[in-house]
């Protein structure tokens, strides 16, 4: 078992975007968050996460294990890590990878500046990988450098669209019930085949749910369960909640999860994940121009038109660029009125490159205000298509209107 040092710090890159919590949810989570935040602050690691990432991805049908398959030229696992890193009260993230992929994983941690990550060696099955991750947190292990958490989250590394609200729900429920897991309605009906591959019986779909991730447990509940586990369970089991019930006699609290909790398993899931990520990072466009005051400025006209094509268009001037980049905007439209504006545009390009944003996020440069005004509709259509398509072959478009 190899424990890598917790990672460094630095801006995360694009990935699944968190929706803000609203209304009662926000109030409830704020109190729970503050409770965890407070406890996490005093106990430094009240909540930890274990991410099994030691599989081979056979069902994906490609040589690269699916957790390392690129989406927008970034490994799938990096999006999951980023989603967890955005949750400040998760103090340690333990990732189980095979020995042969250890260096690849370390490279991803460094390239994308992931933090709070410790690596352990995966097992030959998912349960064994999870068990190795738990051992890294248990204080009864030699050379253990991590403190035992009160609650541990278990989440598949190939489920990138996990959000803070569902993590908070399962963690809060686990604290109260000992175990908790996200569930989703079944899409297909479950049937039981007979020995001769004929229908024996089918289950009433409405009475059943699909078990998804994340799941959360009081650490001792799940660690004790894994310590008692039979080899059969470790070899063939797929359900951590079942182990908590069978060995720790804890009935997990089930929490309705969002539709995006699904696991990347087949190649089609990669395409689906890419389109979800593209959609999420295309929702914010920054129109950069040298003035905010002049409402007749073509930049404001462009902004109004872009709002009909894209969700969120923010107008800013050159001075706010650093803040915009820190807010993780990935789409910039620079309206150049005078040739001097090109210096502003070059400054933006330098900032985007320095800020480590992926080169896939197009900066659209427009020159010639008057001509743009004449072809504003066409310019809007082209800009929206560039942002939505985000094709690496179209990097750094210079649109001369
Ligand atoms: N020995 C294993 C097997 C799986 N996993 C991880 O458990 C998660 C969910 O498992 P699954 O979707 O089955 O992944 P694979 O086993 O890689 O897929 P396949 O069954 O298609 O080979 C994945 O993050 C996978 O990397 C693991 O840590 N150790
Ligand atoms: O190894 P597999 O991908 O088949 O199993 C993983 C899933 O079973 C698991 O992630 C959820 O069902 C929740 O337990």
UniProtKB/TrEMBL annotation:
Ranges of compositional bias, category Gly residues: 1-10
Cellular localisation: Cytoplasm, Cytosol
Main location: cytoplasm
Alphabetized UniProt keyword annotations: Cytoplasm, Nucleotidyltransferase, Transferase
Catalytic activity entry: D-ribose 5-phosphate + CTP + H(+) = CDP-D-ribose + diphosphate; D-ribulose 5-phosphate + CTP + H(+) = CDP-D-ribulose + diphosphate; D-ribitol 5-phosphate + CTP + H(+) = CDP-L-ribitol + diphosphate
EC category name: transferase
Pathway(s) it belongs to: Protein modification; protein glycosylation
GO cellular component: cytosol
EC code(s) of this entry: 2.7.7.40
SUPFAM superfamilies: Nucleotide-diphospho-sugar transferases
Family annotation (Pfam families): IspD, ISPD_C
Role noted for this protein: Cytidylyltransferase required for protein O-linked mannosylation. Catalyzes the formation of CDP-ribitol nucleotide sugar from D-ribitol 5-phosphate. CDP-ribitol is a substrate of FKTN during the biosynthesis of the phosphorylated O-mannosyl trisaccharide (N-acetylgalactosamine-beta-3-N-acetylglucosamine-beta-4-(phosphate-6-)mannose), a carbohydrate structure present in alpha-dystroglycan (DAG1), which is required for binding laminin G-like domain-containing extracellular proteins with high affinity.
Record's subunit section: Homodimer.
Family note: Belongs to the IspD/TarI cytidylyltransferase family. IspD subfamily.
Protein known as: D-ribitol-5-phosphate cytidylyltransferase
